[in-house]
UniProtKB/TrEMBL annotation:
Belongs to the peptidase M56 family. This is BlaR1 family beta-lactam sensor/signal transducer. The lineage of its organism: Bacteria, Bacillati, Bacillota, Bacilli, Bacillales. Gene3D superfamilies: DD-peptidase/beta-lactamase superfamily. The keyword Thylakoid does not apply.
């Protein structure tokens, strides 16, 4: 999940940087200096998107999720071991499964995460060093005592409508004016500045540094450093922030020029030139705003100052329009982040009026899992492990309930003739090596039967049906394995129960005889006026049973109960175990007794 977030961040940040640089190049003459700088704030907004919690992002299926178990390079292989009975009645629906081979990505994720942490620690250390340098400068500051200089500073503050107390000082630790400090702000001048700077130079410096304060450039510095630590691995972020700092200085120069009369524009440029020889000493501190920069940056600033013209109303309008265009572009990346953030792997629409949370941990023992029960008469849910009950996971063979229904609806099989001939390919279980009809195929969980249904249905029809019934994440993108077998298709236990209820009441207007045929094929037992219907599913990856399902419903004389049980483990979680747990719970609730 963390690596996915970093990947999402890399993609979104790279696209946004590229788009902003393109817009700046295409519309350079239409964009004012202020709005060229403001565009970079949209980058800061885009950098937050990958870290927004999934439940705050709008759900969407614009893209297939990249975060599910990888199907690339996976191959389906047969698990020739006999199915575990788990103590269940072998006359009931049998728990057959095959194994899927998948590459374990945990090692890669661990290495990638470790590299990111190491890089983040290095750049955090550099940022702490920069902060300590500022702290050292702060200790070296001496107060300015020259009344004329203090009056100049006061008038500059008044000109910019700044009322906050800002400390003015000098330090032999700096060679260029700088402004820093979040809680207490300092404007610091080099020692002996009065010897080589005129009164006009000093006034211009004050206006420049105070404009940095006025436009909140100090907290922006900290934001940029924070994001540079997070995105240290993306060179485009380093390029973007370098451009952002230059655009900020140019925007600040323009703000100063707007406050000066025309005859002082050249003098302001000369003030900047005074510091060109000091552009490499000391090293630039990213937590402070400094008047100078590299010689290349100063040269560009001088060119901009020389060609300065106040913005016209038309240019301001164009600038705002371009800004809104880029803002819209940033917003359009949110659905992409939603899918990448695994939002599609959790069911977020479950909001029943009556939900009773229960502690059923004693039934699950050492298994991670959940149990969902819906009482149709009371319109109430009983749930164990609510967080797990909304997590989407592979349905495995429980999906065959709906595969059968789709095949009936498309007349691939019918209620009178549902037999598909076995093609002679040797299967792992003797029960699979023969012709199958709907009832035997569901009872024995015969993979090849439902794979043939899928082939005849076609991907478009399957996708259409899954959308119609809102089946889980509706992702059938895996073309190498059965998409329902520890692959791309996923569904939560809550959704299993909701779908069974909708199937039972035929909410989606399938042919009634087809609903009845599937229902009859799911019947497992009948006793004392109660009938049990269900389907198991086992997910076997690399030879280990990691995922077990038992879903179904119980019809009594007065009520119907729908249930879904899921268990997960590293190597011992099967449909048989899920069945045992379910039957024990149903018995203790006096719903069904085996």
């Amino acid at each position: 999940m963390f690596v996915t977030t970093l990947l999402t961040g890399f993609i979104i940040s790279s696209i946004t940087v590229g788009f902003i640089l393109l817009i700046k190049k295409l519309f350079q003459s239409q964009l004012s200096a202020k709005w060229q700088y403001n565009l970079w704030y949209l980058l800061l907004a885009a950098l937050v998107i990958p870290f927004i919690p999934a439940h705050f992002l709008p759900a969407g299926n614009l893209f297939h999720s990249f975060t599910g178990p990888s199907s690339e390079g996976s191959t389906a292989s047969i698990n020739t071991a006999a199915p575990e009975s788990g103590g269940t009645n072998t006359n009931w629906m049998q728990d057959f499964s095959v194994t899927v081979t998948q590459t374990n990505t945990d090692l890669f994720n661990g290495i990638a995460g470790g590299i990111w942490i190491a890089g983040a620690l290095v750049f955090t250390g550099l940022s702490i060093h920069a902060w300590l340098k500022l702290k050292g400068i702060r200790k070296s500051i001496s107060a300015v005592e020259n009344k004329a200089i203090l009056d100049l500073f006061k008038r500059a503050k008044q000109q910019l409508n700044i009322s906050k107390n800002i400390s003015l000082g000098v330090s032999d630790e700096v060679h260029s004016p700088l402004t820093f400090g979040l809680r207490k702000t300092f404007v610091v001048l080099p020692a002996n500045f009065e010897e080589w700077l005129s009164e006009d130079d000093i006034r211009h410096i004050f206006l420049h540094e105070l404009n940095h304060y006025k436009y909140k450039d100090i907290p922006t510095n900290y934001l940029m450093v924070f994001f540079q630590i997070i995105y240290w691995f993306n060179p485009l972020i380093w390029i973007a922030f370098k451009e952002m700092r230059l655009d900020r200085e140019i925007a600040c120069d323009y703000a100063v020029l707007l406050s000066l009369d025309d005859k002082n524009h050249k003098k302001y440029g000369n003030t900047i030139i005074h510091f060109i020889d000091k552009s490499s000493s000391p090293p630039y501190n990213k937590l402070a705003n400094q008047l100078n920069g590299s010689k290349k940056q100063i040269k560009k600033r001088i060119v901009e100052i020389a060609s300065f013209q106040a913005d016209s109303k038309l240019q301001r309008a164009k600038s705002m329009g371009i800004f809104l265009l880029v803002g819209l572009f940033v917003i359009t990346q949110i659905p992409f982040a939603s899918v990448m953030a695994n939002d599609n792997n959790r069911y977020t629409s479950f909001k029943p009026e009556q939900t009773n949370e229960e502690d059923l941990s004693s039934y699950f023992q050492n298994y991670e899992g959940s149990f969902v029960l819906y009482d149709m008469q009371k319109d109430a849910y009983h749930i164990y492990n609510e967080d797990q009950s909304t997590l989407r996971i592979s349905p495995d063979s429980t999906y065959k309930i709906y595969s059968a229904l789709f095949g009936l609806e498309e007349n691939i099989i019918t209620t009178e003739q549902s037999t598909i001939e076995w093609d002679g390919t040797e299967q792992p279980y003797d029960q699979w090596n023969q012709d199958q009809n709907l009832e035997t195929a569901l009872n024995r969980s015969v993979n090849w039967y439902f794979q043939q249904l899928d082939q005849k249905l076609g991907a478009n029809s399957i996708q259409s049906y899954l959308s119609r019934i809102h089946y889980g994440n509706q992702d059938i993108s895996d073309r190498t394995n059965p998409y329902w077998l520890e692959s791309t298709l996923k569904i939560s236990p809550v959704e299993q129960v909701e779908l069974l209820q909708e199937l039972y009441t035929n909410r989606f207007d399938f042919q009634e005889e087809h609903i009845q045929a599937v229902k009859e094929a799911l019947q497992m037992d009948q006793k004392d006026g109660a009938a049990l219907y269900g389907k198991t599913g086992t997910g076997n990856v690399n030879g280990k049973d990691i995922n077990g399902w038992f879903v179904g419903f119980v019809e009594t004389e007065t009520n119907t109960y729908f249930f879904a049980t899921n268990v997960q483990d590293e190597d011992n979680a099967s449909g048989s175990i899920a069945t045992e747990i379910t039957l024990a719970i149903l018995k203790d609730k006096q719903i069904y007794e085996e």
